[in-house]
Design brief:
The protein is built from 4 helices and 2 strands, in the order ββαααα. With 114 residues, it is α+β, with helices and mostly antiparallel strands. The longest helix is centred in the middle third of the chain and has 10 residues.
């Protein structure tokens, strides 16, 4: 005999992408999980405390293109980041990707064997 499903026995449906906040850099929905990171607007090495949540791939691109000194001096605001030519080109590319997209070639520095 099968027992009826208990109303609290199954997981709630996943949030619709339209319910998720947008990434401040690329504007795609941010789905909770491993695809998100916290970015310090002013690097911690320069005393920065304020963070914004964004896609991991967007965060990685910022740090691949800009030095911490550049982030501190010129690019400590989202609008300034979007105005950088390399970041702007990246945004145009990544906007066509799904929200959970993570570049398969990107590696986490802590997991590198060198």
């Amino acid at each position: 005999m099968r027992l009826p499903d208990h109303p609290f026995s199954h997981k709630p449906p996943p949030a619709a992408e339209s319910d998720c906040p947008a990434c401040p850099l690329c504007g795609r929905p941010m789905v909770p999980g491993a695809s998100l990171n916290e970015h310090h607007l002013i690097p911690r090495t320069y005393g920065g405390r304020e963070t914004v949540t964004m896609h991991r791939i967007c965060h990685a691109k910022i740090h691949a293109v800009l030095t911490e000194q550049q982030l501190r001096d010129q690019y400590h605001e989202i609008d300034a980041l979007r105005g950088h030519p390399d970041i702007a080109a990246f945004i145009g590319w990544v906007r066509r990707k799904p929200p959970e997209f993570v570049d398969g070639h990107a590696t986490d520095r802590r997991r590198r064997k060198r």
